[in-house]
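Predict the 3D structure for this chain.
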Amino acid sequence: AAEFPVEGDNVLVPLHRIEQAQRVELEPAEPIAWGVDVARMGADATVIVERRGPVARVLATFRKLDTMQVAGRIARLFAIAEQQPDRINVDEIGIGAGVLDRLVELDLPAFGVNVGSKASDTERFVNLRAEIFWTLRERFEAGEIDIEEDDDLAAQLAAQRYLITSAGKV
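Done. Predicted structure below.
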């Protein structure tokens, strides 16, 4: 069973907001995007999340696959998808780069995301990761996200913390 941390001041998404997002039923919308976090042979899993507007669902989880096998699974999911995504966003840090390269070679709509790169709003955020997660926090606060009831997902979301730097950036 997942362990949920006690809510605190620096929790990015409070547990009650996560539970609210699990209960709400929002209407799927365009665009359709997949997010891919690539793991390799360790205990972590490669996870593909599909987002249709405000509705996000785990599409697939794979363990102990090499980069070519992960790319092959993504290509297969793309080929059989009832509605193909407009974008496949791949975490390109580390081994995700190889998966991204293969998907691009296969002419799929794959794009690299490097969360360590510069935020688009450099006044507010130290990097893209902080900006992405803060935008996610805002979606939860506004009730504009619908996620599945998944204890592991909820625990990972509830474990995310944020800090404000001395320069006032997230």
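The longest helix spans residues 128-142.
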